[in-house]
TrEMBL record:
GO terms for biological process: pyruvate biosynthetic process; ubiquinone biosynthetic process. It comes from Polynucleobacter victoriensis. This is Probable chorismate pyruvate-lyase. Its main location: cytoplasm. It is found in: Cytoplasm. Transmembrane segments: none annotated.
């Protein structure tokens, strides 16, 4: 994760065109990533939870929120197709974003966060950034609003994703 701290750039037209074309749609899509993977691979997507606990934010993550975040839950998962990890995702859920009307994000288990986030169509995105991780591939992070509360999601597209796409 240390390599990621300084390498994010805001997603705009110029940044997107610097990315290999095969990754441009994946990085810029504003809908549910789980649904996009399912559609492109024509296979169900499963979630392998790696960790789901209270922990501290990385400094560059904390800077993206408009206010100090003292307590948060961080959920790290693989999105898998045919039991093969194709995306690594890290979700930052501030305590204020996962209580009250948003408490359903605390009960995800092995369900994708997108089931909650995109329940009523598209979720508002405040910021989208992209990065390249040498030897790994491309990633994006998005600051969403869930019923008025921020949730930061970082997603890294693993090379195995392309092998799972059905032509």
């Amino acid at each position: 994760m240390k390599k990621l701290r300084q390498s994010w750039v805001n997603l705009d037209h110029v940044a997107l065109h610097a990315v290999p074309q095969i990754w441009q749609d994946w990085l810029s899509d504003a809908g549910s990533l789980t649904q996009l993977i399912a559609n492109k691979t024509q296979s169900p997507v499963s979630v392998e939870v790696l960790s789901d606990r209270n922990q501290n934010l990385l400094n560059d993550e904390a800077l993206l929120f408009n206010k100090p975040i003292n307590h948060c839950r961080i959920r790290e998962v693989y999105l898998c197709v045919n039991d093969v990890p194709v995306v690594f995702a890290r979700s930052i859920l501030p305590t204020s974003s996962s209580t009250g009307i948003n408490r359903d994000v605390l009960q995800l288990g092995s369900k994708p966060l997108g089931e909650v986030l995109f329940k009523k169509g598209k979720a508002p995105i405040l910021l989208r950034q992209i990065t390249e991780v040498p030897g790994l591939g491309w990633g994006r992070r998005s600051l969403y609003q869930l019923r008025g509360h921020p949730i930061l999601i970082s997603e890294f597209f693993l090379p195995e994703l392309l092998a799972q796409i059905k032509s």
